[in-house]
Amino acid sequence: MAAYVYPEYEVVRDRTKCINCRVCERQCSHGVHAYLAGAKTMTEDSSKCVNCHRCVCMCPTHALKIVKSDDTYKLNANWTCRTVNEIYRQADTGGVLLSSMGNPAEYPIYWDKMLINASQVTNPPIDPLREPMETELWLGARKVSIERDEKGRLRDTLPVQLKLDLPIMFSAMSYGSISYNAHESLARAAAELGIYYNTGEGGLHRDFYKYGANTIVQVASGRFGVFREYLETAAAIEIKMGQGAKPGIGGHLPGAKITADVAETRMIPEGTDAISPAPHHDIYSIEDLRQLVWSLKEATDYKKPVFVKIAAVHNIAAIASGIARSGADVIAIDGFRGGTGAAPTRIRDNVGIPVELALAQVDQRLREEGIRDNVSVVVGGSVRSSSDLLKAVALGADACYIGTAALLALGCHLCRSCHDGKCNWGIATQRPDLVKRLDPEIGYKRLVNLVTAWKHELEEMMGGMGINSVEALRGNRLMLRGIGLTDRELKILGIKCAGESI
Predict the structure, then answer these.
(1) Contacts of 179 by beta carbon, 8 Å cutoff, 6+ apart
(2) pLDDT in tens, 320-347
(3) H/E element holding 427?
(4) Cys-Cys crosslink for 11: which of 44, 68, 488, 490, Cβ 3.0 to 4.6 Å?
């Protein structure tokens, strides 16, 4: 007999406010709400609720709220309610537990344990309203040799670069895992902001080729949608070796999400599961990776920078050192807090390391080996605010990927049920009736607003530090101080403790 698991969330309806308008019933794709014609009243099935808050937001009389269930088993610090419920679910189904978005566990958040130093007298602050602040930067290899032509003039030997108006990009989210309207919002916002968005491993929809100048296309183990025109359309190419939410494993997009458009874009049959192998079957060494890097450069006439994306794992510094020597132009590091459309719960919550520690170690290793200028470094995995962004740059990043923050700007409520394809906010779904709920005209403007606000805050914080350019901030760890960190953690991060003099 299956063990009954009490709902994690309960829908509370105020009968004195409910007018039986049935808006909640129409808005919920999970079938939580229903109208009882005989009783002329609304009812709800809390066992289906994922706490997406769509009904709460749309209720015209504010008659609904969703609360965390207070039902619990006999208290046990080891066998928690969540642990017991997960065992019951696996005993019922025999399946792997799946989760969406990032790791929600109470691990340390190192961004919150770092403070920003400020200027006072000897190095006065800068007023960003009256003095120029440079937030633009270039991504790509910078180590060049000095060469002259027959007339003694300097030759331009600088490898191809990507220019960003500020150190932010929208991270990889594939068409299929998120909707057409979500991709359009990201592409339009990137074009207006002078930054880039990443297609993820799902190919590039034909409608979005016009945004190619602001697009990074991905080459993953499944090679979905990869062909010459796809590569040539983009501003840069990213080889996906790993992902922060699920290091060491591949991907799986269920056939239910492979609609006609998604199938055409990914170049696979409609309705079939899209499975990415864990490894690239042609890459088992840095030498193999180097071959793919140079093959992609050759295929695009050496006009596109090549990124290599890896998950933050324990030997990340050594891996990054090899990638820097492979010919890649940019290393993208994805931390274990990174979001995803679906990942095995055990992998998401237990594999990988925080991106803050990975970044610090990679930057330090590349500097020690004298190859830091061989590559740029981009990081992602729960960059939540402009202060996280600034701290990442100060730790050594050239720029940051943001994914979950961008989806929140589009309306995501972090209900972490992306894998079921029933996103009530029109983001992680391919159902036409749900996709249309996200208006790309509104969505892209909200993304522009978010990034513009971060830009203003970044300039204010940099001004307070007495720094007037992102380039001067990069790797400037003297401007960071740790609080509540052990000596070992401070050493790994390469920063001093708050209150410690230089």
Answers:
(1) 423, 426, 427, 428, 429, 430, 434, 435, 438
(2) 999 999 999 999 999 999 988 888 889 8
(3) none
(4) 44
